[in-house]
C-alpha cells in the first residue's frame, strides 16, 4: 500500500490532521489506530442498556477559540450544555469551582455573608483567585477560608488523584484551583460550550469520511509500518515508546472506570460529583446530563485513579513534576532530529495534558506549518 501520510492515532489530533491533509492538500492518508474504535479518549458509544456513555470519562467541549469551534462545527451540530460539578464536603454538595453559592451552602447565613463581603471588597465580584493567593491573604478570615477549601476540597482529592501530596507536584497544580467570587455554577466560562449533537464518535466519523482517508483499527503502527510506503508520518502516541523508552519511561496516572446502570431516570443532580475525602474513587459521572438522552434509566461510572502500567491500562494524565518535563525534553530533542520523516503532536506525543480544543488547535497549527514548509 502506498500513501502520502501515515498517521498514528485516531483521536482529536490524528483525525484533525487526517481531515486537513486529505481535504486541504488532496493527499492520501492512512490512519492507524491501536484501539478498536476511532475518537481516542473522546470516544462515546451505547452500552448494553442503550445509554450513550463516554467510555474514557466524561468529555465536555469548551473553547474560547472561534477558529476551533468553527472548524469542528463543519462536522457536527451542538447540543448546548454547561458542565456543572459538585464536591461532597461533610455530606453537603457544593459547586466547584468553589464560589459564593458554596459559602452559602456550608456556613451560617451571617458568616457566609461576612466572607462574601470580604471577598468582594478585596478582589471584586467576578474575580477568580488562585487558592495559594487567598492563603497569603493578610486577612485572618480569608486565610481561614483558604485553608478550609484547601483541606476539604483539594488536599485528599489530590492525594487520591496523583498518589502524591500537593507539595510533591508542580505548584501549577494547586495554583490552578480557584475560588470564584461569583454565583455562576458553570465549571467552564468559555465562550463556546457544548456536546456534539449526535455524539463525539459520529463527529469523528464525519471528519474521517473522505476518499483520501483510510482507517485501520486494532493495529499498532509498528505491525504495519514496514509494509506501507509513505512519505511522512504523524505520530500521536506516547513519545517515549516511539523511541523504545531509551531515556526511561514517562510517568502517567491512569484511571479505572466502573460502570453501573440504575433503574431510575437520574442518579445525581449534575454530570460530575467529586468525593474529595471519602471512598477510593474520586468522582461519579453521569453522562446523560451531557448527552441529554431521554430514557427512564441511567448509567453512571465511578472513577478510580490507578498507577499506569503500559499494556495493562491507559496513560491518561502526564504527572506534572519537574523531572518528568526534563525527561520529556530529551525525547523532544530526538524528535527534532527526525522531523523530516516524523512529526509528533497530541497529548501523548507532547507529554502534555490538552483539553480537546487545545489538541485541535495544536493540530491546526501543525497543518499550517506543513502547508508553508
Ligand atoms: P488521544 O485521544 O489519546 O488519541 C491518541 C490515539 O492514539 C489513541 O486512540 C491511541 O489508542 C492511539 N495510539 C497510541 N499509540 C498508538 C500506536 N502505537 N499505534 C496505533 N495507535 C496508537 N478535554 C476536554 O476538552 N474536555 C473534557 O471534559 C475532557 N475530559 C477528559 C477526561 C479524561 C478522563 C481525560 C483523560 C481527558 C479528558 N479531556 C477532556 C482531554 C481529551 O481527552 C484530550 O484533549 C484528547 O483526547 C486529546 O486527543 P489526542 O488525539 O491528542 O489523544
Write the layout of secondary structure elements.
Blueprint: E1 5-8, H1 12-24, E2 29-32, E3 44-46, E4 52-54, E5 61-63, H2 66-73, E6 78-79, E7 85-89, E8 92-96, E9 98-99, H3 100-106, H4 109-123, E10 128-130, H5 131-135, H6 140-162, H7 171-175, E11 178-180, E12 192-196, H8 200-208, E13 213-216, H9 221-224, E14 232-235, H10 239-242, E15 252-262, E16 272-274, E17 283-286, H11 288-291, E18 298-307, E19 317-318, H12 322-337, E20 342-344, H13 356-372
Parallel strand pairs: 1-2, 1-14, 2-13, 7-16, 9-11, 14-20
Antiparallel strand pairs: 3-4, 5-12, 6-12, 7-8, 10-11, 15-18, 15-19, 16-17, 17-18
Task: Please explain how this structure is put together.
Residues 152-353 form the UDP-galactopyranose mutase C-terminal domain. Keywords: FAD, Flavoprotein, Isomerase. This is UDP-galactopyranose mutase. It comes from Brevibacillus porteri. Belongs to the UDP-galactopyranose/dTDP-fucopyranose mutase family. The strands form five sheets. A seven-stranded mixed beta sheet has the order 8-7-16-17-18-15-19. It has a five-stranded parallel beta sheet with strand order 13-2-1-14-20, covered by helices on one side. It is of the alpha/beta class. The chain has 13 helices and 20 strands. The two termini are 26 Å apart. The chain has helices at 12-24, 66-73, 100-106, 109-123, 131-135, 140-162, 171-175, 200-208, 221-224, 239-242, 288-291, 322-337, 356-372, and strands at residues 5-8, 29-32, 44-46, 52-54, 61-63, 78-79, 85-89, 92-96, 98-99, 128-130, 178-180, 192-196, 213-216, 232-235, 252-262, 272-274, 283-286, 298-307, 317-318, 342-344. The protein folds into three domains: 5-80 and 192-250 and 319-372, NAD(P)-binding Rossmann-like Domain (Rossmann fold), CATH 3.40.50.720; 85-180, no CATH class; 252-307. A hairpin with a 5-residue loop joins strand 3 (44-46) and strand 4 (52-54). The structure holds flavin-adenine dinucleotide (FAD). Flavin-adenine dinucleotide binds next to helix 1 and helix 13.
Amino acid at each position: 500500500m502506498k500513501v502520502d501520510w501515515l498517521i498514528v492515532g485516531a483521536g482529536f489530533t490524528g483525525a484533525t490532521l487526517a481531515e486537513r491533509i486529505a481535504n486541504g492538500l488532496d493527499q492520501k492518508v492512512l490512519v492507524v489506530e491501536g484501539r478498536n474504535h476511532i475518537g481516542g479518549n473522546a470516544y462515546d458509544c451505547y452500552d448494553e442498556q442503550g445509554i450513550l456513555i463516554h467510555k474514557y470519562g466524561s468529555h465536555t467541549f469548551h473553547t474560547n477559540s472561534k477558529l476551533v469551534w468553527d472548524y469542528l462545527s463543519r462536522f457536527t451540530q451542538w447540543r448546548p450544555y454547561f458542565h456543572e460539578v459538585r464536591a461532597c464536603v461533610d455530606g453537603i454538595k457544593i459547586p466547584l469551582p468553589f464560589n459564593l453559592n458554596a459559602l452559602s451552602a456550608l456556613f451560617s447565613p451571617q458568616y457566609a455573608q461576612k466572607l462574601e463581603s470580604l471577598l468582594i471588597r478585596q478582589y471584586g465580584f467576578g474575580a477568580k483567585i488562585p487558592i495559594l493567593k487567598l492563603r497569603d491573604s493578610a486577612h485572618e478570615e480569608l486565610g481561614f477560608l483558604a485553608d478550609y477549601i484547601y483541606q476539604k476540597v483539594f488536599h485528599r482529592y489530590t492525594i487520591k488523584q496523583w498518589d502524591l501530596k500537593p507539595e510533591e507536584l508542580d505548584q501549577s497544580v494547586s495554583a490552578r484551583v480557584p475560588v470564584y467570587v461569583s454565583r455562576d455554577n458553570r465549571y467552564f466560562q468559555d465562550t463556546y460550550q457544548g456536546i456534539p449533537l449526535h455524539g463525539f464518535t459520529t463527529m469523528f466519523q464525519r471528519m474521517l469520511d473522505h476518499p483520501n482517508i483510510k482507517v485501520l483499527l486494532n493495529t499498532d503502527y509498528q505491525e504495519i509500518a514496514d509494509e506501507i510506503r509513505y512519505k511522512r508520518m504523524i505520530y500521536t502516541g506516547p513519545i517515549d515508546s516511539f523511541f523504545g523508552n531509551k531515556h526511561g519511561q514517562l510517568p502517567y496516572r491512569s484511571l479505572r472506570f466502573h460502570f453501573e446502570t440504575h433503574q431510575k431516570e437520574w442518579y445525581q443532580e449534575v454530570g460530575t460529583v467529586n468525593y474529595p475525602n471519602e471512598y477510593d474513587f474520586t468522582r461519579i459521572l453521569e453522562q446523560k446530563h451531557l448527552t441529554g438522552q431521554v430514557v427512564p434509566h441511567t448509567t453512571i461510572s465511578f472513577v478510580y485513579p490507578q498507577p499506569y502500567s503500559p499494556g495493562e491500562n491507559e496513560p491518561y494524565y502526564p504527572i506534572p513534576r519537574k523531572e518528568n518535563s526534563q525527561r520529556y525534553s530529551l525525547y523532544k530533542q530526538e524528535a527534532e532530529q527526525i522531523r523530516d520523516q516524523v512529526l509528533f503532536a497530541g497529548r501523548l506525543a507532547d507529554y502534555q495534558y490538552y483539553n480537546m480544543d487545545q489538541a485541535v488547535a495544536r493540530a491546526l497549527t501543525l497543518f499550517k506549518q506543513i502547508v508553508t514548509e
